[in-house]
Automatic annotation (TrEMBL):
It comes from Podospora didyma. Pfam families: Dabb (PF07876). InterPro entries: Dabb, Dimeric_a/b-barrel. This is Stress-response A/B barrel domain-containing protein. Residues 9-107 form the Stress-response A/B barrel domain. Transmembrane segments: none annotated. SUPFAM superfamilies: Dimeric alpha+beta barrel.
Amino acid sequence: MTIKQDTRIHRTTMFKVPDAENQRKLMEAYQTLSKTQVKGDQPYILYVCAGLAADEPLSKGYTVVAHTMFKNVEDMRYFDNECAAHAAVKKTAASLGMTEPPLAVYFEGQPALSK
């Protein structure tokens, strides 16, 4: 994948966590991730946000959604394979009674805002 200078890697991860208390725990784990993520000695995730999915038919049973943004694919791969803060989120998620594994997708995109 060739990445242009001003593009970012946007990743969305969706979870099916049926219990409201466990949903809260997962969102808290993402809050902790946002404060503790480092690569070397520097924060490397450009953006982290997690919240409850709207209770709508389009949600298809997904209850918690997380969005992360990275400078490049290498940083996202570090997130998946080496980041201790993300490992803690994965451990928390695995303990919350998910009805199936999370769904994660990512894309390369250049933010465009209209004025």
